[in-house]
Design brief:
alpha+beta; 60s Ribosomal Protein L30, Chain: A; 11 strands
Length: about 230
């Protein structure tokens, strides 16, 4: 497990990343991984309730699906948070079927509570959360014939979520693009720049092999601050 403590956007964060201890199934691996993360956070006076984002990695579709089911059960109630999931065999250095990245935030006030906003009707990922001045959107995707069509669907929905969260593209602190391996980063960069003419302080790109459904070519995660 890799544990990183850092200051960002006027808050302290704890980031955890690990591949699961290899087990009989992706379900068992995911359950063990969340227990490890829970114990690690407790050492810093935090819990899974302080989670603001998780990113789940599956070696294959079955592993992604089973890991996602465990995550829904574990990160419920106060632990509900922004999420995304990807299929990427090359992400793994071990025989594990599931890996997880988790970001937790230490609130500046003991009475602070996450405001979680669901889709209507609610689906597995939340739409976004607001935690003090932090705005965190779940990964946003679409199933359409081309990357251009998908971005034309995804980006207005992100803009609407930012607006409803009291934020905007101008307040975006980090944008993470998870692009299907069949697509080129250069094309994505050009398409995004044409549609969102705002300088984002932190931008990252990663190739993946799959998502929650066939036909998706890109998933975009956004972290921002409120106005």
């Amino acid at each position: 497990m890799r544990t990183t403590i850092f200051s960002w956007l006027d808050h302290e964060f704890v980031a955890l990343s690990a591949e699961a201890p290899p087990g009989a199934s992706a379900t068992e691996e995911s359950e063990r991984l969340f227990r490890r993360f829970e114990n690690e956070l407790a050492g810093f006076g935090l819990s899974l309730d302080h989670t603001v984002r998780t990113r789940l990695w599956g070696r294959d579709r079955q592993s992604r699906d089973l890991g996602s089911q465990v995550r829904v059960k574990v990160l419920s109630g106060k632990a509900r948070s922004a999420s995304s999931s990807y299929i990427s065999p090359v992400h793994f250095d071990s025989a594990a079927k599931v890996a997880l990245d988790l970001l937790a935030m230490r609130p500046s006030r003991p009475d602070s509570r996450k405001n979680v906003v669901e889709y209507d009707p609610p689906i597995v990922p939340i739409r976004f959360l607001v935690y003090e001045s932090l705005v965190v959107l779940s990964g946003v995707t679409a199933v359409l014939p081309s990357i251009e069509a998908q971005l034309d669907d995804i980006l207005p929905r992100i803009e609407a979520s930012l607006r409803d969260a009291g934020s905007s593209w101008d307040r975006a602190a980090k944008v993470s693009f998870f692009l299907h391996r069949s697509q080129r980063f250069e094309s994505l960069k050009e398409l995004f720049h044409r549609r969102v003419g705002v300088r984002i302080p932190e931008v990252e790109y990663c190739h993946v092999d799959g998502y929650s459904a066939e036909g998706k070519l890109c998933e975009i995660e956004v972290t921002a601050t409120s106005l």
